[in-house]
Amino acid sequence: MRPGSLDDRLQELAERAGVPYIDGMKVTSHGWRAGANTDMIAASVPLAERNIAGRWASGSHTADTVYGRQHGLGTRDPLVSVPLYGGPARAMVAGARAGA
Q: Which of 5-14, 15-24, 53-62 has the lowest mean pLDDT?
C-alpha cells in the first residue's frame, strides 16, 4: 500500500456517502484517531492512558491539542446512512451508551 492510500479510499467513501466534510473538516484517517480519543475524553480517561492507547509520547498533550475534537453534528447525523452504525444498530448503540 502506498502512503495516502487509506486517506484516498476513506475520502472516496465519504464523498459517496455525501459527507466529505464534518464540521468543516475534510474526512481523513486521522479522524479515526481523533474519534477514539474524543470518546475516551468523554469517558474521563486520563491523558496518560490516552497517550498509551494513541501511541503518543508519554507526557505529550497531542491527544488534547490535536486529537480532542468535540463536534456537533446538528440535526443531520451522517452515520445514520451507514449500515453498520445506522438504523437499528444506531438504536442499540444509543441504548448501550444510556445504560453505561
A: 15-24
Q: Would you list the DSSP string of the chain?
A: --TTHHHHHHHHHHHHHT-SEETTEE--THHHHHHHHHHHHHTT--HHHHHHHHTPPTT--HHHHTS------TT--GGGG-TTTSTHHHHHHHHHHHH-
* Residue 91 belongs to a domain: no
pLDDT of residue 86: 57
Among 65, 82, 96, smallest CA distance to 22 is for: 82
> What's the domain range around 48?
5-75
> Is residue 22 over pLDDT 60?
yes
Q: Which residue has the cell 445506522?
A: 86
Q: Tally the domains of the chain.
A: 1
